Amino acid sequence: MATAKKQSAPAPASTVDLQETRCTCGCGETTPARSRFRPGHDQRLKGQLARAHYVAAEVAVVQPDGQQQRLPAVDAARLLDTDRFSWSAKLSTNRRRPSEQSQEQSA
Ligand SMILES: [Zn+2]
Fold it and tell me: Among 7-21, 30-44, 93-107, where is mean pLDDT lowest?
């Protein structure tokens, strides 16, 4: 990829924390097993990623092994995709569908 000059963005707009037992939104709180988010925090992260995507900002991603990297919001969202909810598709379409109000939760 070409190294285009970017607008200086000192701090990443948001953090995606993929470590087990950590809330994925990057708030640093712990989650019970099988949960990726504290209640409501998935919505919060969706908003943050949408905003980061909108301004073309990078997102800090904490890998399960604790290593950090910075990725474009769409790439970070792709890491969160599940069979039942596509975070990346949500970003790339960026359309609001009233029928999609339900939260992502494990059954
Ligand atoms: Zn959180």
Answer: 93-107
Domain ranges of the chain: 15-96
The CA 92 to ligand 1 mean position distance, Å, reads 23
State the SS3 of 5-22.
CCCCCCCCCCEEECCCCE
C-alpha 12 – ligand 1 centre gap (Å):
16
Compute, in angstroms, the gap from residue 19 CA to the centroid of ligand 1.
Answer: 12
pTM: predicted TM-score of the whole model, two decimal places: 0.73
